[in-house]
């Protein structure tokens, strides 16, 4: 399993700043950061006010967490060389006119998708889990689709948008959902079914290439993995590791066999995803097992119970239970941001507090 995280680049005062090219140049000069393993690189994102990190593939959650923290610390060092900081916030709280990176493909996307592209200063957390082949990957995609709203609720970290409180725990997911391929998908059935959907999307002429397949969960175009993309970037590094452990648990559960319950219709899954984005962990979520509203803590407990045998087999159960309890007690990033607001923090102060949490060693 591996984790990709997108971060805002901000000034030390807390304002978004378009210095990604400079940050990436500093990273490119760091020969010690290079590795023959997949992942581990600092990469550009769509906007110059953000960058993306990735871990190497890891089997042990503690090693993965160490690498997530090390990647955040290293990226912070590169950002400081450019006079900036990094913040694990899924949206910037201030009004900001973000700028597209100087890349031909990115500029073409900006021209074609207009305001949807203009507004995409959003930061997510993507989890990769290795699969044996595409058919195995599609079994996992079809199995975990009902659980992606719970992953979103645990990660929700974007309550503010363009200088206003959005009324959502994850407004990033609302902005991201404007892309034509974003969101939950219907079951694919097998690898051939998945490939047909991609081919038909490309044939429609709506998207530029298969890199614009923005499903909540998809087969990676770069690695032999399933990539789950539904989560906001997490304020706390351990919450990102929890996303990885839960996704791997869902993957192992899918491959363990057993009778699959009837698949929910995509319309119902979209509603469950909207509800998770709206209230996060602060209200009811739609239970993936009953389709009815239930307190968020109870729905998270359903997810843990569902993947319990898989977590026991990988030795992750105790850690996952402890970290989940921490998230429910302390709150996701949205709850933490709202608590800072209640203490009197303005937009810039929220970002400054987020900077400290992003690179915290604990």
Automatic annotation (TrEMBL):
Pfam name, any one: GCS2
Keyword Ligase: yes
GO molecular function, one term: glutamate-cysteine ligase activity
Enzyme class of the recorded protein, top EC level: ligase
InterPro entries reported in the protein's UniProt record: GCL_type2/YbdK_subfam, GCS2, Gln_synth/guanido_kin_cat_dom, YbdK
Keyword Ligase: yes
Basic and acidic residues: compositionally biased ranges: 41-57
Highest taxon above the source species: Bacteria
Disordered: region residues: 31-57
Catalytic reaction equation(s): L-cysteine + L-glutamate + ATP = gamma-L-glutamyl-L-cysteine + ADP + phosphate + H(+)
Keywords, alphabetical: ATP-binding, Ligase, Nucleotide-binding
EC number: 6.3.2.2
Cited function: ATP-dependent carboxylate-amine ligase which exhibits weak glutamate--cysteine ligase activity.
HAMAP family in the record: Glu_cys_ligase_2
Family: Belongs to the glutamate--cysteine ligase type 2 family. YbdK subfamily.
NCBIfam families from the UniProt entry: gshA_cyan_rel, PRK13517.1-1
UniProt name for this protein: Putative glutamate--cysteine ligase 2
């Amino acid at each position: 399993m591996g984790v990709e995280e997108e971060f805002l680049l901000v000034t030390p005062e807390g304002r978004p700043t378009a210095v990604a090219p400079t940050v990436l140049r500093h990273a490119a000069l760091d020969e010690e950061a290079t590795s023959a393993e997949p992942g581990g690189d600092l990469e550009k994102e769509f906007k110059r006010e953000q960058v993306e990190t990735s871990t190497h593939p890891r089997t042990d959650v503690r090693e993965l967490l160490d690498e997530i923290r090390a990647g955040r610390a290293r990226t912070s060092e590169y950002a400081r060389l450019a006079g900036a900081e990094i913040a694990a916030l899924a949206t910037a709280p201030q009004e900001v006119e973000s700028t597209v990176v100087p890349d031909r493909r990115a500029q073409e996307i900006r021209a074609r998708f207009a305001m949807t592209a203009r507004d995409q200063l959003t930061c997510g957390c993507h989890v990769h889990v290795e699969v044996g082949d595409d058919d195995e990957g599609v079994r996992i995609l079809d199995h975990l689709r009902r659980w992606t709203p719970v992953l979103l609720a645990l990660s929700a970290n974007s309550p503010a948008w363009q200088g206003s409180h959005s009324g959502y725990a994850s407004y990033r997911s609302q902005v991201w959902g404007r892309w034509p391929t974003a969101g939950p998908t219907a079951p694919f059935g097998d690898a051939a079914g998945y490939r047909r959907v991609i081919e038909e999307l490309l044939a429609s002429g709506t998207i530029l290439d298969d890199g614009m397949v923005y499903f909540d969960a998809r087969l990676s175009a770069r690695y032999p993995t399933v990539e789950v993309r539904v989560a906001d970037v997490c304020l706390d590094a351990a919450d990102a590791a929890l996303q990885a452990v839960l996704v791997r648990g869902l993957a192992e559960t899918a491959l363990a066999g057993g009778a699959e319950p009837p698949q929910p219709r995509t319309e119902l899954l979209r509603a469950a995803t909207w509800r998770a984005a709206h209230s996060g962990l602060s209200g009811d979520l739609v239970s993936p097992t009953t389709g009815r509203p239930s307190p968020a803590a109870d729905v998270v407990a359903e997810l843990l119970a569902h993947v319990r045998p898989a977590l026991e087999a990988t030795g992750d159960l105790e850690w996952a239970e402890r970290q989940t309890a921490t998230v429910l007690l302390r709150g996701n990033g949205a709850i933490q941001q709202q608590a800072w607001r209640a203490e009197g923090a303005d937009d810039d102060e929220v970002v400054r507090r987020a900077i400290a949490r992003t690179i915290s060693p604990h």
